[in-house]
Design goal:
The chain is an alpha+beta fold. Helices cover 29% and strands 33% of the residues. The protein is globular. The termini are far apart.
Length: 167
């Protein structure tokens, strides 16, 4: 009789375990449901101690962040075709070692995303800049390799609006 219910107990315990947080010793977190990935991306970027870089790798956008003394690679997979092209459909977060330690040229983005529910779309323009669109319709342009001088959040919103008008 006990052998019949042991698998049920094991499954029940597994379902009651909380999802791992970034600060736990988990080498990788993967989210495959689009809405969950969009929410997790917003939270991950908002809670980062530093955002160092954004880059393009095929149909993915990669952010390099620091959080609580560790460096993470945050990879958002995008919908490749159709009317929702650029929609975030999956996310993976991988611990890549000790934190870089400096502030990071894109760290302003964390503050801008602090009250955002989700990052829904990431679009890449011809120059490699990434427009980040949130669930509440805000858009920010993150330009690889560019520092944050001035009011970066305002500049990024202006650049994203200007790019949409021109594109």
């Amino acid at each position: 009789m006990l052998t019949a219910i042991l698998p049920l107990i094991t499954v029940s315990l597994g379902l009651s375990m909380p999802a791992p947080e970034l600060d736990e010793a988990v080498p990788q977190v993967t989210v495959t449901q689009p809405r969950s990935a969009q929410v997790r991306l917003a939270v991950t970027l908002a809670e980062a101690d530093a955002i160092h870089a954004v880059g393009i790798r095929g149909q993915t956008i990669v952010f390099a962040i620091d959080r609580e003394g560790e460096a993470f690679e945050v990879v958002a997979t995008l919908r490749a075709k159709g009317p929702n092209k650029g929609e975030v459909i999956a996310l993976s977060i991988t611990d890549v070692g000790p934190a870089i330690g400096d502030m990071g040229s894109l760290s302003w983005l964390g503050g801008e995303l602090a009250d955002v529910t989700a990052v829904t779309v990431l679009a890449v323009d011809g120059d490699g800049a990434v427009t980040i669109t949130t669930s509440d319709g805000r858009a920010y342009m993150a330009i690889p390799g560019r520092g944050s001088g001035g009011n970066a959040g305002v500049e990024a919103r202006w650049a994203a609006a200007w790019d949409r008008d021109e594109g």
